[in-house]
């Protein structure tokens, strides 16, 4: 719709709207039919006068005047078509129509949102991937998605594209994946839990309880071979359920403190007391 006007007819949309589908404007359509009939009549009249003019039964003036009448009728017909087109609301793509946002009699301007329209046969899902993992994913990698609405169902999609820049704050890269949604069960705005089936890699991780954050930095208390506690800075990567990746600062097999870190000072001797849920844990390295 490219012109200002009032909503005079609120059509009842079907659930599906197809590209090119248009709402009805009976008055404009009637004017178009009238203009079309007038143009046809003017052309027919001109053809009759032209035949008579060749026989000398009417003057050339009468014939030329009717030709100008044909041109005027055709111009009026084109104007009626333009006005109808300007007042016609067309679906720009095939999709599902939601609730309308205007009521009968509402004055609308070009650009006014009158109804929601979503193409949901395929869903584009955007998420972020830590820069440390970018080397492990690629275009076409399989992505599994789970929704709280359908807990026992796994949706499968593929990575279509990824961003070209790393966010300076989150240190992550935007990624987009495409999921087939033929049954329409996934809706725009849904929250999904994603798992990327990328290339496996080895990572070093510790229990999340071992972290001792300070401002924007992360530390852990490491126990050396002599049993002395040392506070060491670490760089962390991805997080899992109760664990966090250590990108640098620790080696596999080193021991870290999980509990009682508030009582420690650099160089203090530490003795592990065996009990359920040990306060000391080893740094692990495994494939994920």
Secondary structure elements and pairings:
Layout: E1 5-6, E2 16-17, H1 26-54, H2 60-86, E3 95-100, E4 107-108, E5 115-118, E6 122-130, E7 142-147, E8 150-162, E9 172-180, E10 192-197, E11 202-207, E12 212-214, E13 217-223, E14 229-239, E15 243-248, E16 255-257, E17 280-282, E18 284-287
Antiparallel strand pairs: 1-4, 2-3, 3-5, 6-9, 7-8, 7-10, 8-9, 11-15, 11-18, 12-13, 13-14, 13-16, 14-15, 16-17
Helix pairs in contact: 1-2
Order of helices and strands: EEHHEEEEEEEEEEEEEEEE
Oligomer: single chain
Number of DSSP helical runs: 2
Q: Kindly provide the radius of gyration, computed on alpha-carbon positions and rounded to a whole number of angstroms.
A: 36 Å
Query: Briefly, what CATH class of the largest domain?
Result: Mainly Beta
Distance between the termini: 53 Å
Question: What number of structural domains do the residues give?
Answer: 4
CATH architecture classification of the largest domain? Beta Barrel
In CATH, the topology of the largest domain is named conserved putative lor/sdh protein from methanococcus maripaludis s2 fold
Overall mean pLDDT score? 80
Sheet with the most strands?
8 strands, antiparallel
Morphology call: rod-shaped
Structural class: alpha+beta
User: What is the strand content?
Assistant: 35-45%
Could you explain how this protein is built, in words?
- This protein has 288 residues and is α+β, with helices and mostly antiparallel strands.
- The chain folds into four domains: 1-23 and 91-119, no CATH class; 26-86, Helix Hairpins (Orthogonal Bundle), CATH 1.10.287; 121-197, Beta Barrel (Elongation Factor Tu (Ef-tu), domain 3); 202-287, conserved putative lor/sdh protein from methanococcus maripaludis s2 fold.
- It contains two helices and 18 strands.
- It has helices spanning 26-54, 60-86, and strands at residues 5-6, 16-17, 95-100, 107-108, 115-118, 122-130, 142-147, 150-162, 172-180, 192-197, 202-207, 212-214, 217-223, 229-239, 243-248, 255-257, 280-282, 284-287.
- The strands form four sheets. Strands 11, 12, 13, 14, 15, 16, 17 and 18 form an eight-stranded antiparallel β-sheet that branches. Strands 6-9-8-7-10 form a five-stranded antiparallel β-sheet, with no helix packed on it.
- The relative contact order is 0.11.
